[in-house]
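Input record (one chain):
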Amino acid sequence: MNETDAIAFVAGIALGALGTLIGAGGGFLLVPALIVVEPEWSTQSITAFSLAVVAANASAGALSYWRQMRVDLRSFPLFAAAAIPGSIVGAYATRFIPRHVFDIGFGGILLAISAWLIFRPQARATFEFGTTSRKMVDRHGNTYEWRFSLRVGMVAAAIVGFVSSLLGIGGGIVHVPFMIAVLGFPEHVATATSHAVLAVTTIVGTIVHLVHGDYRPIWTLTLATAAGALVGAPIGARLSRRVSGPMITRILAVALGSVAVRLIVAH
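The corresponding structure, as predicted from the sequence alone:
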């Protein structure tokens, strides 16, 4: 492993820990970092690299959350099934987006989500007419009980699947806020369940990029960063037990806003 790969491995650990903590997979930090560090990379190279790292992070994180019994195992397969078609289409669509359009659009989306979370950090169940109810008890004895609209959740998952592959961020940065603020999922269940959905959709998106040969020039760097994310994910899952739900939401909002401003100002 050369010096560049070693740095990528360490960065992957940090991304994996933070991404698992907030249920976002780390792609929301990795993509803007690549935009700045690798100005010559194409849109598909950036999204392919990020999706592979997020896939590793989400898979390890989902396993950790499953062991903690925080994944909604009834909603997860339904959301994942709804998101898969969009993730395939999104991975293909990256080939037709110019870099400058991608950069500015990505920044605008992140800024909008950040503002939403800041002004509605405690929002609950916009769709209170939902008829689907859940009750869970995690491995540490914490009880979670909520109601939501399964139909709205599946439509959102389909959209998230497309956006996640299109932007290379894995979708958690969009899905977690939606599950918390609109569907009314408890924060810890939302991060865990989103991570499980992320594991499926990002693996699908990664396979699409692999088939198209997008990893040929960047495969060693991708593997080093993904390996780091595998190490960091369990760390983030353990930290989540020590961080309150509202704090997770605020960390997410601040991280999104800072990254968004950096991208927009750069252009």
